[in-house]
Specification:
Blueprint: H1 3-21, E1 30-36, H2 43-62, E2 71-77, H3 83-97, E3 101-104, H4 107-120, E4 123-126, E5 141-143, H5 148-161, E6 166-172, H6 175-190, E7 194-201, H7 209-218, E8 222-226, H8 231-241, E9 248-250, H9 255-261, E10 269-273, H10 282-295, H11 301-323, H12 330-339, E11 342-344, E12 350-353, E13 359-360, E14 363-369, E15 372-379
Helix pairs in contact: 2-11, 3-4, 5-6, 8-9, 11-12
Length: 382
């Protein structure tokens, strides 16, 4: 055998062994895909989420990446929640960038891409969508965001604590809003409550007076707002302008809602994930300081979730790589997560992914004072 034949034979043997063992070479870069609302009415969310994501990648790369391999963000736009736009974005991530790791957001696009994730073994991390229908929508989906059913549960437990009985609901007429109603109604009835009215408004509605008039006629003890920015602010404003003084309880309140509602939002109660930097938790302080230095504003929990999500993915890549083989995909990353579901949380301490794929994290009750949500207390959702 001459030298040329020797090398050809060696290469063939290496290729055969690689195929037999499933061993794959490390990539030059780990591409982390993200499908976010980068344009449209909900672009506020996409901006915040992408900023948290990018900051984490910058920090990890500055420390040498993951086992010497840098991370790269590849962000696609679902334009505010459309299912087809989500599919288009997912297909671009797969065909153009070849990533098998995707951070997703919003309910409709996440549900739309779930079958593709299953087919292509794409690992999904959701830090923003809240519908209970997201649970189990893909074999490879995990959530470091509290889902709406958990948040609604917290809101209703607090309503019962206040001694309230008759609830009226105003919700988004879409997957996100409908899912909260479907979760909240049986919870409230189980708690001994009564549902006086349920009214739906389209996402993007600029007038909900008809629905609010029907709620007023029902004369509830409190009104639950199962919707998100910017309709929360509009609903609060019009309810108060209709002369209704009942407690208002929701599951989100953003600076944009505060701007829309103005002083009518005083006293609004809401339940949400709670990120607050603390001297007791150095990582939370480091993140908050770094975010403000880079972007000029304090981070909210959406920024914290996507920042934290990148660190979860980085840890999973380390664990998966240690197993060898073709590891940067949903199948292997799911396996190593299930083996050890505990991760450091930028919120403080550790979080644990439950068997349903949702991370158990603390949630908090807030009350709007002087236009801003003021922390009241933590709620136990167990």
């Amino acid at each position: 055998m001459n030298r040329r034949q020797f090398w050809i034979g060696g290469l063939a043997l290496a290729a055969a062994l690689s195929a037999a063992t499933g061993q794959a070479a490390d990539p030059k870069v780990y591409k982390i895909g993200a499908i976010l609302a980068m344009s449209g009415q909900a672009s506020l969310y996409g901006t915040t989420m992408s900023q948290g994501l990018k900051l984490a990648i910058d920090e990890i790369n500055a420390k040498g990446g993951v086992n010497g391999i840098p991370l790269e963000a590849v962000i696609e736009d679902h334009k505010g929640g459309g299912g087809q736009e989500g599919v288009n974005a997912m297909n671009r991530l797969l065909t153009i960038h070849g990533t098998k790791i995707v951070m997703t957001s919003f309910t409709a696009p996440t549900l739309a891409i779930a079958p593709i994730a299953d087919q292509q073994k794409v690992f999904l991390m959701n830090g923003g969508g809240v519908s209970p229908k997201l649970v189990g929508s893909s074999k490879y989906i995990f959530h470091n965001r509290s889902l709406s059913s958990d948040l609604a549960n917290g809101a209703l437990l607090y309503a019962k604590e206040l001694g309230l009985k008759k609830m009226a609901q105003i919700h988004w007429k879409n997957e996100a809003g409908d899912s909260v109603v479907n979760a909240a109604a049986p919870i409230w009835k189980k708690l001994g409550g009564e549902i006086a009215a349920t009214e739906a408004v389209p996402q993007g509605a600029t007038n909900m007076d008809t629905q609010i008039a029907k709620v007023r006629a029902a004369n509830p003890d409190f009104i639950a707002l199962w919707m998100f920015n910017p309709e929360v602010g509009l609903a609060i404003k019009r309810i108060r302008e209709f002369g209704m003084k009942q407690p208002l309880i929701g599951i989100e309140y953003t600076p944009n809602d505060a701007k829309i509602a103005g002083n009518t939002s005083e006293g609004f109660l809401y339940i949400n994930d709670y990120f607050q930097p603390s001297e007791d938790h150095p990582w939370s302080k480091q993140f908050a300081d770094g975010y403000k230095k880079k972007y000029g504003v304090d981070p909210d929990f959406y920024a914290a979730n996507y920042y934290e999500g990148v660190y979860i993915i980085a840890e999973l890549l380390k664990r998966a790589r240690a197993r060898g083989g073709d590891y940067a995909n949903g199948e292997v990353m799911k396996a190593v997560l299930i083996e050890n579901p505990k991760f450091d949380s930028v919120y403080g301490g550790q979080m644990v992914f439950q068997p349903n794929g949702v991370a158990f994290k603390r949630v908090a009750l807030f009350k709007v004072e002087d236009g801003k949500g003021k922390f009241q207390k933590f709620l136990d959702l167990k």
